[in-house]
Amino acid sequence: MPMAEAPQAAGGQSDGGDGEDAEPEGMFKAPEDSKRKVGDYLRLAPLWLALVVLVSVGVLLWYFLGYRAEVTVSQVYSGSLRVLNRHFSQDLARRESSAFRSETAKAQKMLKGLITSTRLGTYYNSSSVYSFGEGPFTCFFWFILQIPEHRRPMLSPEVVRALLVEDLLSTANSSAPPPYRAEYELDPEGLVLLEASVKDLVALNSTLGCYRYSYVGQGQVLRLKGPDQLASSCLWHLQGPQDLMLKLRLEWKLADCRDRLAMYDVAGPLERKLITSVYGCSRQEPVVEVLASGAVMAVVWKKGLHSYQDPFVLSVQPVAFQACEVNLTLEGRLEPQGALRTPHFPSYYSPSTHCSWHLTVPSLEYGLALWFDAYALRRQKYGLPCTQGQWTIQNRRRQAQHQVPCGSTLGAQHGAFSSPASGL
Q1: CA distance to 193, 363, 373, per residue, from 335 (Å)
Q2: What stretches pass through the bilayer (predicted)?
Q3: What is the DSSP string of 320-362?
Protein backbone atom coordinates (compact mmCIF):
# COMPACT_ATOMS: atom_id res chain seq x y z
CA MET A 1 0.00 0.00 0.00
CA PRO A 2 1.56 3.23 -1.01
CA MET A 3 2.88 5.52 1.75
CA ALA A 4 2.38 9.32 1.63
CA GLU A 5 5.60 11.40 1.92
CA ALA A 6 5.86 13.49 4.98
CA PRO A 7 6.40 17.20 4.30
CA GLN A 8 10.01 18.46 4.75
CA ALA A 9 10.58 20.20 8.00
CA ALA A 10 11.47 23.86 7.79
CA GLY A 11 15.18 24.44 7.89
CA GLY A 12 15.83 20.75 7.20
CA GLN A 13 17.95 19.21 4.47
CA SER A 14 16.29 19.06 1.09
CA ASP A 15 18.17 15.99 -0.03
CA GLY A 16 19.21 13.37 2.44
CA GLY A 17 21.76 11.97 -0.05
CA ASP A 18 23.56 15.29 -0.30
CA GLY A 19 23.45 16.15 3.43
CA GLU A 20 27.14 15.49 4.21
CA ASP A 21 28.67 17.00 1.01
CA ALA A 22 26.65 20.19 0.72
CA GLU A 23 28.35 23.42 2.11
CA PRO A 24 26.69 26.60 3.25
CA GLU A 25 26.81 29.51 0.83
CA GLY A 26 29.90 31.67 1.22
CA MET A 27 32.01 28.95 2.90
CA PHE A 28 35.04 29.54 0.62
CA LYS A 29 34.66 33.33 0.17
CA ALA A 30 36.69 34.32 3.38
CA PRO A 31 40.09 33.14 2.08
CA GLU A 32 39.41 34.88 -1.21
CA ASP A 33 38.63 38.15 0.66
CA SER A 34 41.84 37.82 2.73
CA LYS A 35 43.88 37.41 -0.43
CA ARG A 36 42.14 40.42 -1.92
CA LYS A 37 42.93 42.53 1.21
CA VAL A 38 46.60 41.43 1.19
CA GLY A 39 46.77 42.48 -2.42
CA ASP A 40 45.27 45.85 -1.56
CA TYR A 41 47.84 46.31 1.23
CA LEU A 42 50.67 45.45 -1.12
CA ARG A 43 49.39 47.98 -3.64
CA LEU A 44 49.25 50.65 -0.85
CA ALA A 45 52.75 49.80 0.53
CA PRO A 46 54.57 52.45 -1.56
CA LEU A 47 52.12 55.09 -0.31
CA TRP A 48 52.65 54.05 3.33
CA LEU A 49 56.42 54.03 2.81
CA ALA A 50 56.26 57.51 1.32
CA LEU A 51 54.22 58.76 4.31
CA VAL A 52 56.77 57.30 6.77
CA VAL A 53 59.62 58.94 4.86
CA LEU A 54 57.82 62.31 4.83
CA VAL A 55 57.12 62.15 8.57
CA SER A 56 60.77 61.22 9.28
CA VAL A 57 62.04 64.07 7.12
CA GLY A 58 59.67 66.47 8.89
CA VAL A 59 60.91 65.37 12.31
CA LEU A 60 64.53 65.79 11.23
CA LEU A 61 63.85 69.24 9.77
CA TRP A 62 62.11 70.30 12.97
CA TYR A 63 65.02 69.07 15.06
CA PHE A 64 67.80 70.69 13.04
CA LEU A 65 66.03 73.86 11.88
CA GLY A 66 63.62 74.42 14.74
CA TYR A 67 64.62 72.73 17.95
CA ARG A 68 68.38 73.09 17.48
CA ALA A 69 67.96 76.75 16.48
CA GLU A 70 66.42 77.38 19.88
CA VAL A 71 69.32 75.93 21.87
CA THR A 72 70.16 78.61 24.45
CA VAL A 73 73.33 79.70 26.20
CA SER A 74 73.91 81.53 29.46
CA GLN A 75 75.33 85.00 28.89
CA VAL A 76 76.71 86.64 32.02
CA TYR A 77 77.04 90.40 32.55
CA SER A 78 78.69 92.24 35.43
CA GLY A 79 78.45 95.91 36.25
CA SER A 80 77.52 98.75 38.55
CA LEU A 81 74.78 101.37 38.80
CA ARG A 82 74.77 104.67 40.67
CA VAL A 83 71.85 105.57 42.94
CA LEU A 84 71.24 109.26 43.64
CA ASN A 85 68.89 109.08 46.63
CA ARG A 86 70.88 106.69 48.83
CA HIS A 87 73.88 107.19 51.12
CA PHE A 88 76.52 104.64 51.96
CA SER A 89 77.04 103.51 55.55
CA GLN A 90 79.65 101.20 57.04
CA ASP A 91 76.94 98.64 57.79
CA LEU A 92 76.59 98.15 54.04
CA ALA A 93 80.26 97.14 53.85
CA ARG A 94 79.57 94.11 56.05
CA ARG A 95 77.74 91.33 54.22
CA GLU A 96 76.61 89.77 57.49
CA SER A 97 74.77 92.90 58.67
CA SER A 98 70.98 93.22 58.61
CA ALA A 99 71.33 96.56 56.78
CA PHE A 100 73.23 94.82 53.97
CA ARG A 101 70.65 92.04 53.67
CA SER A 102 67.77 94.52 53.64
CA GLU A 103 69.38 96.78 51.03
CA THR A 104 70.39 93.90 48.75
CA ALA A 105 66.81 92.55 48.78
CA LYS A 106 65.49 95.92 47.59
CA ALA A 107 68.33 96.47 45.12
CA GLN A 108 67.93 93.01 43.58
CA LYS A 109 64.21 93.64 43.12
CA MET A 110 65.07 96.92 41.40
CA LEU A 111 67.66 95.25 39.13
CA LYS A 112 65.28 92.45 38.09
CA GLY A 113 62.49 94.99 37.44
CA LEU A 114 64.79 97.09 35.26
CA ILE A 115 65.88 94.13 33.13
CA THR A 116 62.41 92.60 32.73
CA SER A 117 60.87 95.94 31.77
CA THR A 118 62.88 95.88 28.53
CA ARG A 119 62.76 93.33 25.74
CA LEU A 120 65.56 91.56 27.60
CA GLY A 121 62.89 90.26 29.98
CA THR A 122 62.21 87.35 27.61
CA TYR A 123 65.73 86.09 28.27
CA TYR A 124 66.01 86.90 31.98
CA ASN A 125 67.44 84.06 34.06
CA SER A 126 68.80 85.38 37.37
CA SER A 127 70.57 88.34 38.96
CA SER A 128 72.26 89.42 42.16
CA VAL A 129 73.53 92.59 43.84
CA TYR A 130 76.64 91.48 45.71
CA SER A 131 78.17 94.74 46.97
CA PHE A 132 77.71 98.46 47.55
CA GLY A 133 80.11 101.36 47.25
CA GLU A 134 80.26 105.01 48.21
CA GLY A 135 80.95 108.34 46.58
CA PRO A 136 78.15 108.35 45.19
CA PHE A 137 76.19 105.31 46.33
CA THR A 138 76.79 102.45 43.89
CA CYS A 139 75.30 98.97 43.47
CA PHE A 140 77.60 96.26 42.10
CA PHE A 141 75.78 93.39 40.43
CA TRP A 142 75.73 90.56 37.91
CA PHE A 143 72.90 89.00 35.90
CA ILE A 144 72.41 86.13 33.48
CA LEU A 145 70.39 86.11 30.26
CA GLN A 146 69.41 82.77 28.75
CA ILE A 147 69.53 83.61 25.06
CA PRO A 148 69.32 81.64 21.79
CA GLU A 149 72.82 80.81 20.66
CA HIS A 150 72.40 82.53 17.30
CA ARG A 151 71.45 85.80 19.03
CA ARG A 152 74.50 85.88 21.28
CA PRO A 153 76.56 88.20 19.04
CA MET A 154 73.63 90.64 18.92
CA LEU A 155 73.48 91.05 22.69
CA SER A 156 76.91 92.47 23.45
CA PRO A 157 77.39 94.46 26.68
CA GLU A 158 77.16 97.67 24.65
CA VAL A 159 73.78 96.68 23.17
CA VAL A 160 72.39 95.48 26.51
CA ARG A 161 73.55 98.65 28.24
CA ALA A 162 71.91 100.80 25.56
CA LEU A 163 68.58 98.99 26.10
CA LEU A 164 68.74 99.48 29.87
CA VAL A 165 69.75 103.15 29.57
CA GLU A 166 66.92 103.74 27.10
CA ASP A 167 64.40 102.42 29.62
CA LEU A 168 65.91 104.49 32.43
CA LEU A 169 65.73 107.67 30.35
CA SER A 170 62.19 107.02 29.12
CA THR A 171 60.86 106.55 32.65
CA ALA A 172 62.90 109.30 34.33
CA ASN A 173 60.20 111.97 34.00
CA SER A 174 57.22 109.65 33.88
CA SER A 175 54.20 110.66 35.93
CA ALA A 176 53.73 107.00 36.89
CA PRO A 177 57.24 105.55 37.36
CA PRO A 178 57.61 101.77 37.06
CA PRO A 179 57.71 99.75 40.29
CA TYR A 180 61.48 99.25 40.12
CA ARG A 181 61.93 103.02 40.53
CA ALA A 182 59.67 103.27 43.55
CA GLU A 183 62.58 103.53 46.00
CA TYR A 184 65.60 104.26 43.85
CA GLU A 185 66.50 107.34 41.83
CA LEU A 186 68.84 105.83 39.26
CA ASP A 187 71.53 107.58 37.24
CA PRO A 188 71.49 106.33 33.62
CA GLU A 189 74.96 107.77 32.98
CA GLY A 190 76.27 105.83 35.97
CA LEU A 191 75.51 102.41 34.47
CA VAL A 192 78.61 100.32 33.72
CA LEU A 193 78.23 96.92 32.05
CA LEU A 194 80.91 94.36 31.19
CA GLU A 195 80.90 90.86 29.76
CA ALA A 196 81.59 88.13 32.30
CA SER A 197 81.45 84.34 32.40
CA VAL A 198 80.13 81.54 34.58
CA LYS A 199 83.74 80.92 35.62
CA ASP A 200 83.94 84.52 36.89
CA LEU A 201 80.78 83.99 38.98
CA VAL A 202 82.24 80.84 40.50
CA ALA A 203 85.42 82.76 41.39
CA LEU A 204 83.37 85.61 42.89
CA ASN A 205 81.11 83.35 44.96
CA SER A 206 84.13 81.50 46.35
CA THR A 207 85.41 84.77 47.88
CA LEU A 208 82.21 86.25 49.33
CA GLY A 209 82.71 84.48 52.64
CA CYS A 210 85.82 86.65 53.13
CA TYR A 211 84.73 89.84 51.40
CA ARG A 212 86.34 93.19 52.33
CA TYR A 213 85.18 96.57 51.04
CA SER A 214 87.34 99.66 51.60
CA TYR A 215 87.07 103.24 50.41
CA VAL A 216 90.28 105.26 50.43
CA GLY A 217 90.14 109.04 50.26
CA GLN A 218 92.44 111.49 48.53
CA GLY A 219 95.82 111.78 50.26
CA GLN A 220 95.16 108.68 52.35
CA VAL A 221 97.30 105.54 52.53
CA LEU A 222 95.17 102.67 53.81
CA ARG A 223 96.67 99.45 55.13
CA LEU A 224 94.30 96.58 54.46
CA LYS A 225 93.36 93.91 56.96
CA GLY A 226 95.05 90.59 56.21
CA PRO A 227 93.21 87.55 54.87
CA ASP A 228 91.15 85.19 56.99
CA GLN A 229 93.44 82.19 57.41
CA LEU A 230 90.41 79.92 57.92
CA ALA A 231 89.15 80.81 54.43
CA SER A 232 90.59 79.48 51.19
CA SER A 233 90.06 82.73 49.31
CA CYS A 234 89.41 86.41 50.07
CA LEU A 235 88.34 89.44 48.04
CA TRP A 236 89.32 93.06 48.70
CA HIS A 237 87.01 95.46 46.85
CA LEU A 238 88.77 98.82 46.74
CA GLN A 239 87.35 102.18 45.71
CA GLY A 240 88.66 105.75 45.62
CA PRO A 241 87.72 109.21 44.31
CA GLN A 242 86.37 109.15 40.76
CA ASP A 243 88.98 111.45 39.22
CA LEU A 244 91.96 109.49 40.61
CA MET A 245 93.47 106.03 40.11
CA LEU A 246 94.31 103.44 42.76
CA LYS A 247 97.81 102.18 43.49
CA LEU A 248 98.19 98.92 45.42
CA ARG A 249 101.41 98.10 47.28
CA LEU A 250 102.21 94.47 48.06
CA GLU A 251 105.06 93.56 50.41
CA TRP A 252 105.94 89.91 51.02
CA LYS A 253 106.71 89.11 54.66
CA LEU A 254 107.68 85.42 54.64
CA ALA A 255 110.72 83.76 53.12
CA ASP A 256 108.58 81.13 51.41
CA CYS A 257 104.87 80.73 50.65
CA ARG A 258 102.55 79.38 47.96
CA ASP A 259 99.85 82.04 48.15
CA ARG A 260 98.53 83.64 44.99
CA LEU A 261 97.30 87.21 44.54
CA ALA A 262 95.45 88.48 41.49
CA MET A 263 94.66 92.15 40.82
CA TYR A 264 91.72 93.21 38.64
CA ASP A 265 90.78 96.51 37.04
CA VAL A 266 87.14 96.17 38.19
CA ALA A 267 85.24 95.48 41.42
CA GLY A 268 85.29 91.68 41.05
CA PRO A 269 87.39 88.85 39.61
CA LEU A 270 86.72 89.23 35.87
CA GLU A 271 89.34 87.32 33.92
CA ARG A 272 89.12 89.78 31.03
CA LYS A 273 90.09 92.59 33.43
CA LEU A 274 93.07 90.91 35.08
CA ILE A 275 95.92 93.40 35.60
CA THR A 276 98.51 90.93 36.85
CA SER A 277 98.95 88.05 39.27
CA VAL A 278 101.79 87.06 41.58
CA TYR A 279 102.51 83.67 43.04
CA GLY A 280 104.56 82.82 46.11
CA CYS A 281 106.75 85.00 48.28
CA SER A 282 109.30 86.56 45.92
CA ARG A 283 112.85 87.26 47.08
CA GLN A 284 113.68 88.86 43.74
CA GLU A 285 110.73 91.22 43.97
CA PRO A 286 109.76 91.59 47.64
CA VAL A 287 107.74 94.76 46.96
CA VAL A 288 105.28 95.13 44.07
CA GLU A 289 103.23 98.22 43.17
CA VAL A 290 100.26 97.82 40.82
CA LEU A 291 98.13 100.57 39.31
CA ALA A 292 94.48 100.37 38.28
CA SER A 293 93.23 102.43 35.36
CA GLY A 294 90.67 104.20 37.55
CA ALA A 295 89.11 104.42 40.99
CA VAL A 296 88.06 100.77 41.36
CA MET A 297 90.18 97.67 41.91
CA ALA A 298 89.73 94.11 43.19
CA VAL A 299 92.36 91.90 44.79
CA VAL A 300 91.76 88.16 45.17
CA TRP A 301 93.84 85.97 47.48
CA LYS A 302 94.10 82.20 47.07
CA LYS A 303 95.55 80.35 50.02
CA GLY A 304 98.64 78.24 49.51
CA LEU A 305 100.14 76.37 52.46
CA HIS A 306 98.34 76.68 55.78
CA SER A 307 99.89 79.37 57.97
CA TYR A 308 98.94 81.38 61.04
CA GLN A 309 100.99 84.32 59.82
CA ASP A 310 100.03 86.68 57.01
CA PRO A 311 102.51 86.14 54.18
CA PHE A 312 102.05 89.68 52.83
CA VAL A 313 100.94 93.22 53.65
CA LEU A 314 98.64 95.19 51.36
CA SER A 315 98.16 98.96 51.30
CA VAL A 316 96.34 101.19 48.83
CA GLN A 317 96.28 104.88 47.99
CA PRO A 318 94.76 107.13 45.30
CA VAL A 319 97.19 108.79 42.91
CA ALA A 320 96.77 111.33 40.13
CA PHE A 321 96.93 110.42 36.46
CA GLN A 322 100.30 111.13 34.85
CA ALA A 323 100.68 112.26 31.27
CA CYS A 324 102.72 109.92 29.14
CA GLU A 325 103.75 112.03 26.15
CA VAL A 326 107.24 113.51 25.83
CA ASN A 327 108.98 115.60 23.17
CA LEU A 328 112.74 115.22 23.52
CA THR A 329 115.30 117.06 21.39
CA LEU A 330 118.73 115.42 21.44
CA GLU A 331 122.02 117.28 21.22
CA GLY A 332 124.89 116.50 18.87
CA ARG A 333 126.92 114.36 21.27
CA LEU A 334 127.32 110.59 21.29
CA GLU A 335 126.23 109.72 24.82
CA PRO A 336 122.97 108.81 26.57
CA GLN A 337 120.60 111.76 26.81
CA GLY A 338 117.28 111.87 28.63
CA ALA A 339 115.34 109.16 30.43
CA LEU A 340 111.95 107.82 29.36
CA ARG A 341 109.75 106.27 32.03
CA THR A 342 106.29 104.74 32.17
CA PRO A 343 103.81 106.51 34.51
CA HIS A 344 104.56 106.02 38.22
CA PHE A 345 107.73 104.00 37.52
CA PRO A 346 108.84 101.68 39.13
CA SER A 347 105.21 100.66 39.68
CA TYR A 348 103.57 98.39 37.17
CA TYR A 349 101.91 100.70 34.67
CA SER A 350 98.12 100.68 34.58
CA PRO A 351 95.98 98.92 31.97
CA SER A 352 95.36 100.77 28.70
CA THR A 353 98.46 102.93 29.19
CA HIS A 354 99.56 104.54 25.94
CA CYS A 355 102.81 106.48 25.87
CA SER A 356 104.14 108.52 22.96
CA TRP A 357 107.73 109.72 22.96
CA HIS A 358 108.77 111.98 20.09
CA LEU A 359 112.55 112.13 19.70
CA THR A 360 114.37 114.61 17.46
CA VAL A 361 118.05 114.31 16.43
CA PRO A 362 120.20 117.31 15.38
CA SER A 363 120.47 116.24 11.72
CA LEU A 364 120.15 113.32 9.35
CA GLU A 365 123.78 112.45 10.09
CA TYR A 366 122.70 111.03 13.46
CA GLY A 367 120.96 107.80 14.23
CA LEU A 368 119.15 106.82 17.41
CA ALA A 369 119.64 104.05 19.98
CA LEU A 370 117.18 103.17 22.74
CA TRP A 371 118.52 101.30 25.78
CA PHE A 372 116.22 99.49 28.19
CA ASP A 373 117.12 98.92 31.82
CA ALA A 374 115.13 96.78 34.29
CA TYR A 375 112.42 95.93 31.79
CA ALA A 376 111.21 92.60 30.47
CA LEU A 377 108.26 91.55 28.34
CA ARG A 378 106.36 88.30 28.58
CA ARG A 379 102.95 86.84 27.89
CA GLN A 380 100.32 86.86 30.63
CA LYS A 381 99.75 83.17 29.86
CA TYR A 382 101.43 80.93 27.34
CA GLY A 383 99.34 80.23 24.26
CA LEU A 384 97.32 83.46 24.55
CA PRO A 385 97.62 86.38 22.11
CA CYS A 386 99.55 89.50 23.05
CA THR A 387 97.38 91.60 25.36
CA GLN A 388 99.80 93.08 27.89
CA GLY A 389 101.59 95.63 25.71
CA GLN A 390 103.90 96.15 22.79
CA TRP A 391 106.38 98.63 21.40
CA THR A 392 105.83 100.39 18.08
CA ILE A 393 108.80 102.25 16.61
CA GLN A 394 108.52 103.93 13.20
CA ASN A 395 105.10 102.27 12.77
CA ARG A 396 106.62 98.82 13.23
CA ARG A 397 106.32 96.52 16.21
CA ARG A 398 109.72 95.87 17.73
CA GLN A 399 111.16 93.71 20.46
CA ALA A 400 114.37 93.80 22.43
CA GLN A 401 116.93 91.07 22.05
CA HIS A 402 116.00 87.82 23.89
CA GLN A 403 112.60 89.24 24.86
CA VAL A 404 109.04 88.54 23.76
CA PRO A 405 106.91 91.59 22.75
CA CYS A 406 104.00 90.71 25.02
CA GLY A 407 103.05 91.55 28.59
CA SER A 408 105.12 93.50 31.07
CA THR A 409 107.02 92.85 34.24
CA LEU A 410 109.92 94.42 36.02
CA GLY A 411 113.18 92.51 35.73
CA ALA A 412 116.93 92.81 35.49
CA GLN A 413 117.21 92.50 31.73
CA HIS A 414 118.63 95.05 29.33
CA GLY A 415 117.88 95.70 25.69
CA ALA A 416 118.44 98.18 22.90
CA PHE A 417 116.73 99.43 19.75
CA SER A 418 118.71 101.17 17.02
CA SER A 419 117.26 103.22 14.21
CA PRO A 420 118.41 105.72 11.58
CA ALA A 421 117.28 109.28 12.00
CA SER A 422 114.80 109.27 9.12
CA GLY A 423 111.18 108.75 10.11
CA LEU A 424 111.66 109.83 13.72
Answers
A1: 50, 16, 16
A2: 44-65
A3: -----EEEEEPPSSSS-------TTTTSBPPTT---EEEEE-S
